[in-house]
Amino acid sequence: xxxxxxxxxxxxxxxxxxxxxxxxxxxxxxxxxxxxxxxxxxxxxxxxxxxxxxxxxxxxxxxxxxxxxxxxxxxxxxxxxxxxxxxxxxxxxxxxxxxxxxxxxxxxxxxxxxxxxxxxxxxxxxxxxxxxxxxxxxxxxxxxxxxxxxxxxxxxxxxxxxxxxxxxxxxxxxxxxxxxxxxxxxxxxxxxxxxxxxxxxxxxxxxxxxxxxxxxxxxxxxxxxxxxxxxxxxxxxxxxxxxxxxxxxxxxxxxxxxxxxxxxxxxxxxxxxxxxxxxxxxxxxxxxxxxxxxxxxxxxxxxxxx
Length: 306
Fold this sequence. Notes:
By secondary structure, the protein is α+β, with helices and mostly antiparallel strands. The protein has helices at residues 17-32, 41-47, 77-87, 113-121, 195-198, 283-291; strands at residues 7-12, 36-39, 57-58, 68-75, 94-98, 108-109, 126-130, 133-138, 144-150, 153-158, 165-171, 174-181, 183-187, 211-216, 226-228, 234-238, 246-250, 254-258, 263-268, 273-277. The protein is globular.
């Protein structure tokens, strides 16, 4: 019987020595377990002068996306978002090893990396699905001119620093409010701890499926963060009186110019992002750990008190 080849994608923040060293260790462990490491073309160019990449495949060239079993990410949240782009359209889950600072999307810290690779080889992990956003841009004639997606957030921002963005917001085909602002963030629960959080939006537990949107520096009496149904359609129109228009950013990685009259429609994507999980840690513990929240004096849950 012919064994099925296992292809593991490695996505690396290749501008740090410790991350490059970690990539070399992961590649060696995958080889020793008869699994085939794979790199994106971009990462291959970055690493080929510092690591032995013999036998390492290249995504989309000699290894198709559908053959990828799992993606191991060495880096911070930005690298994980890049990995989500690379595996978009496939079924491979993403396992993040935090080599950065906060690393909210990462599953483990760098000290646990070797054990994580062994568990990947043993297929000892579970897969958690996170909702993503489908994003469309329509012109003033209502024709779709751009389509993309986001794991964390879609943000409509002003294009000119010295000018205000004039928008009207809509939920499920009904207008909600119009105001001048620096922009509007539309976030998933996964993205609620990213730009949404910095903008004063609510932290949403991953098990709560919802869409949040937060006006940025709005000149309005009613411009509070809102949380809507995950099946809602949220739209942001750039009003014709906006001088200079705006710009759409998705996950801080993909952008599209928004002239006056443009309309951004955000809905739940039919394709979630899959994250590999090694530990059944509570989201509360993740918040405490990543944000270093003070919990001194806690006496324990009601059921454990003597």
